[in-house]
Amino acid sequence: MSTTVNQPNHINEPSFITRCVATVFFSGYSPVAPGTAGSLVALIPLIIFPGIHVFVLVAMIIIGFAAGVRVSNMFEAAYGDDPQVVVIDEAVGMWITMLFVPITWFNLGAGFLLFRIFDIIKPPPARQLEALTNGWGIMLDDVAAGIYAGILVFLITMIG
């Protein structure tokens, strides 16, 4: 008599490319602070190309957001609400934070810290946006955090 082991259903298992996008090159699998890891990885193109044209950054945000909604929805279908490994939302939020400020080391640091603070505390309407389904909530709360952080970094650069 043989016994069978129930195998998990992998019908909804995201593909390699989907996992790569959703986890921002697998930084979301960081055992410590995956959101912070995803935010740091998002800074790499800004560091490599500090003179990045605003239109290129806008294109990155639009493409990242659209892809993010799609892959976040796939991950929610496979793993439940807001899986911790999904960090494409942090990447898009960081890019939004840096959209209207010069890319300097100071602004990158300030933007990173402020974005992470707003992403964690989720002031209104970020907390309410997080409740949306189908990948929208995962993405939109970080868009809000990116807008808040971006406004503050912009004001800091105007004052300083």
Q: What would your notes on this structure say?
A:
Residues 1-9 have low confidence and may be disordered. This protein has helices at residues 16-22, 34-48, 54-79, 88-97, 105-121, 126-129, 136-159. It is globular. The protein has 160 residues and is mostly helical. It has one domain.
The count of helical stretches stands at: 7
Residues in helix, %: 55-70%
Mean pLDDT: 92
How does the major sheet shape up? Answer: none
Rg, Å, rounded: 17 Å
Secondary-structure-based class equals: mainly alpha
Oligomer: single chain
Low-pLDDT residue spans: 1-9
**Integer tally of domains:** 1
What is the overall shape? globular
Number of strands: 0
How much strand content do the residues show? under 5%
Summed up, what is this model?
The chain is mainly α.
Walk me through the topology:
Layout: H1 16-22, H2 34-48, H3 54-79, H4 88-97, H5 105-121, H6 126-129, H7 136-159
Helix pairs in contact: 1-3, 2-4, 2-5, 3-4, 4-5, 4-7, 5-7
Index terms:
mainly alpha; 160 residues; 64% helix; 7 helices
